Amino acid sequence: MYVLVCRESGLGCDFVIKGKTREEFLENGAEHAIQKHGMRTEDVYLNSIPVNLLCHSFNEET
Asked: Which of 14, 45, 49, 55 is deepest in the core (most CB within 10 A)?
């Protein structure tokens, strides 16, 4: 399971993004960023997202 607290990406948000696979995790994170933080789809899918999010994106829950 992959997990990330949205706050770790630099946003003031306690939402926890989870996914059983990397693809599911990234899809859930993108959906949250678009719906709750007003990011544009192009920004998320063109990797124009905060570097912190990319650095923490693949933390596995133990």
From this structure: 49
Q: Summarize pLDDT for 2-55 with one digit per residue, the tens.
A: 888 888 877 788 999 898 988 888 888 888 888 998 888 777 765 555 544 554
Alpha carbon distances (Å) from 32 to 5, 9, 57 = 11, 12, 14
Structure tokens of 61? 């829950």
Structural domain including 20 reads: 2-56
Cα gap 58→54, rounded to integer Å: 8
What Rg, from alpha-carbon coordinates, does the chain have?
A: 10
Look at the block and give the residue holding tokens 């926890």. 16
In Å, the largest CA–CA distance within the chain is 32
